[in-house]
Design goal:
The chain is an all-alpha fold. Helices cover about 70% and strands about 0% of the residues. Helix 4 runs parallel beside helix 6, helix 9 runs antiparallel to helix 10 and helix 10 runs parallel beside helix 12.
Length: about 350
């Protein structure tokens, strides 16, 4: 249970932080301009609609630490676009990514089916549908989406997709051994390495192989600066007593703490507390920042970050009743294994409190 407390606090493979972030396994445009001014130059001749290049630029960057606000910029671009823009599969796909990020999975699925009605071979649309079906625990539908990749994507992409589904559908050990063998035998690009490493880390952890899980996440760390990946990496490091590594790795990535994502802010506060306990220090800088952030979330009734809220109240603020409240909200939105475990942990903590009182 101790392992469960830490490791399953994050979305893997851009799960509800796949629903929180862009997908590490999506096929991005490697020729994407690196400077927004380049995009503005591209759009000088566009008078009736904001260019697709700008929208994709924001979505490509939104998964990076400190850039979650770029989803709002992407939404603004969508709001300003002409109606006929949405006959283009790339516009529809971008809109689906935004609404999926907001946990509007039904709307995202509708948009993805519109993409596939125009372009039935669209790899990203099939991948996103597989993710949505996994979030809903519909493994049969997720498998069908992965099978639709066969013949339209490289074999490695379809294999990772199918084996991830199988690993969640009663074939964990077999799927882990197959996927680990494929990864060791093949040359992966950065996106594939980050995706496969995160899937394998999750599988290894569920097989009670925390050390192997840590190795997989270390292996893909240089290939991904995705928030969900960093959060998963931080969780296993915290569990294995390496809080200093967490601080050293993540703090430089959030030079503006006010813009740090909730998931990273929470893990920095947990790492700070672990270091303090080991050294007898009293530093509470990241704890104060986390307290302020989650207090604002509570006041606003923001349900988009329900998983992080539950984790904050359970593991940092020690308020299990509030943790259970947010874990139940989160479970209604996203139903992956880690979300159920978070819910069960909150219930178990409350039961433990009741038993302690009864024994007094």
């Amino acid at each position: 249970m101790k392992r469960i407390i830490v490791m399953f606090g994050v979305l893997l493979l851009s799960r509800a932080v796949l629903a929180h972030t862009a997908h590490p396994h999506e096929h991005g445009d490697e020729n994407m301009p690196q400077n927004r001014h380049d995009i503005i130059l591209l759009s000088d001749s566009e008078h009736k609609k904001v260019p697709l290049e700008e929208l994709e630029f924001y979505l490509q960057g939104a998964a990076r630490p400190g850039h979650a606000h770029w989803y709002a910029l992407a939404e603004r671009v969508l709001a300003q676009s002409a109606d006929d823009a949405f006959d283009d599969p790339r516009w529809l796909l971008a809109r689906a990514r935004v609404v999926q990020h907001r946990h509007h999975f039904d709307r995202a699925e509708t948009l993805l089916h519109r993409v596939l009605a125009i372009d039935g071979d669209n790899v990203n649309a099939h991948l996103m549908l597989a993710r949505i079906h996994l979030i809903r625990r519909d493994h049969a539908a997720a498998r069908r989406a992965c099978l639709n990749l066969v013949g339209h994507s490289d074999l490695l992409t379809s294999a990772i997709c199918l084996l991830e589904v199988s690993g969640l559908d009663g074939q964990l050990s077999e799927s882990y051994h197959q996927l680990s063998g494929i990864v060791r035998a093949r040359q992966l690009d950065h996106r594939q390495l980050a995706w496969a490493s995160q899937v394998l880390a999750d599988m290894a952890y569920r097989l009670d192989r925390a050390e192997a899980s840590e190795r997989w996440l270390d292996a893909g760390l240089h290939a991904s600066n995705d928030v969900s990946y960093l959060a998963a990496w931080a969780d296993i490091k915290l569990e294995r007593g390496k809080a200093r590594r967490v601080l050293a790795q993540i703090i430089p990535l959030v030079p503006q703490p006010a813009r740090a994502e909730d998931a990273l802010l929470l893990r920095l506060a947990l790492a700070e507390r672990a270091v303090n306990r080991a050294q007898g220090d009293q530093s509470r800088l990241w704890r104060h920042r986390a307290d302020a952030r989650f207090a604002r979330r509570e006041q606003s009734g923001d349900r988009h970050h329900a998983g992080d809220m539950a984790r904050y109240y359970l593991d940092l603020a020690d308020q299990p009743r509030k943790a259970l409240q947010w874990a139940e909200i989160n479970w209604r939105q996203v139903r992956e294994p880690r979300d159920f475990i978070l819910l069960e942990r909150a219930r178990a903590r409350i039961a433990l409190q009741k038993n302690s009182r009864a024994c007094r």
